[in-house]
Amino acid sequence: MSVTENNVSEAMREGVVIPATSRAERFTSYDVEAFEVPGGREENWRFTPMKRLRGLHDGSAAASGSATVDADAAPELKIETVGRDDERLGAAGVPSDRIAAQAYSSFTEATVITVPKETKTSKPSTVKITGPGEGKVAYGHVQVRAEQFSEAVIVLDHTGSGTYADNVEFVIGDSANVTVVSVQDWADDAVHVSEQHLKLGRDASLKHIVITLGGDLVRVSPTATFADKGGDVEMLGLYFADSGQHQEHRLFVDHAVPNCKSRVMYKGALQGDDAHTVWVGDVLIRAAAEATDTYELNRNLVLTPGARADSIPNLEIETGEIEGAGHASATGRFDDEQLFYLQSRGIGEDAARRLVVRGFFHEILVKIGVPEVRERLEAAIEAELEAVGV
């Protein structure tokens, strides 16, 4: 055991939170046993309620069911069910934690969605992933491949019950332009841990939207990397946590090549006792990534006492030759001035509060390019507010 490993083990025995190292040193592997079983004190796990993971993190959660995958796709798409030996799998990234490695080692078949070269799809496509059922465990793998100069909008809609861990890959070819929406609208009992890998080719554009509404515990970790110059990624997120729910979003944008752009904006609201949201946004600009342009933003609105939001933006810069870089984070309750302004114009307090929440999410909602998804979200937000009389 090395000196560093010995120090880490000693720190864990003493109950010390292990500090984060540079994201440039992040360890990745397909091998489950290459990762130590997390105890909950590591930086990557310290906000996650480990007991509620139902054994996904320590190998005790053996697969006992399977998720179902159904598609309502544009006719231009090619959708395949493939085995573990398909050489395309893993092209977008390698698992960076034990659960992701477990999911990669445990799935039996994967879904590969391909947008052919120089094709613009005629309509948005929805791929519905339904959990294995209450009390059951499943592992999955989905890969979206957009070939050169293609355009598409794809929705991954997660619903149902059970415990589910997966890896999702987005391989965006040169000059492709893709919007993907990952919706987590699970039943109240569900646990979902997902690592999402985004890899952009030369001059590729990807709008990646994460929407989290349901589930007992949901943890989504998107990682964006650039294969060549000119990549442009926009990572958007909207989440709404109720009493007892844990929703965690951990993002990593790795700028390793020049002339790429990233924008991150996540907004969340939470209400009820023990509602907990976690947002961690890491951006790394490596020494070779000159002319990088990046900014990340997280905003949280706490609607009732007893709810907690944690927000941690991190920015590492290894070169001074950049276009721009910044981050911002804020968590607060209702803006009294906004409420006063609305009430002074004859709007009742309850209606005024709803208008404030709708306005808070509006900036994200208008960026969702799928009307059906946007309308569904607006209805879900309204239902959440009615539940507590906001």
Give the neighbour order of strands across the main sheet: 1-4-6-8-10-12-14-16-18
Outline type? globular
Radius of gyration: 21 Å
Distance N to C terminus: 55 Å
Please report which band the strand proportion falls in: under 5%, 5-15%, 15-25%, 25-35%, 35-45% or over 45%.
35-45%
Query: Percentage of helical residues?
Result: 10-25%
What class would the helix/strand composition place it in? alpha/beta
Mean of pLDDT: 91
Low-confidence stretches: 1-14
Order of helices and strands: HEEHEEEEEEEEEEEEEEEEHHH
Count the beta strands: 18
Q: Largest sheet at a glance?
A: 9 strands, mixed
Helices, by number, come to 5
What does this structure look like?
The structure is a single chain. The protein is of the alpha/beta class and 390 residues long. Helix content is 16%, strand content 41%. The chain contains five helices and 18 strands. The strands form two sheets. It has a nine-stranded mixed sheet with strand order 1-4-6-8-10-12-14-16-18, with helices on one face. Strands 2-3-5-7-9-11-13-15-17 form a nine-stranded mixed sheet, with helices on one face. α3 packs across α4.
Concise synopsis of the structure shown:
It contains 5 helices and 18 strands.
Topology record:
Layout: H1 3-13, E1 68-72, E2 78-83, H2 98-106, E3 109-115, E4 125-130, E5 137-146, E6 151-159, E7 163-172, E8 177-184, E9 191-200, E10 205-212, E11 217-226, E12 232-241, E13 246-255, E14 261-270, E15 276-285, E16 293-302, E17 308-317, E18 324-332, H3 336-343, H4 349-365, H5 371-387
Parallel strand pairs: 3-5, 4-6, 5-7, 6-8, 7-9, 8-10, 9-11, 10-12, 11-13, 12-14, 13-15, 14-16, 15-17, 16-18
Antiparallel strand pairs: 1-4, 2-3
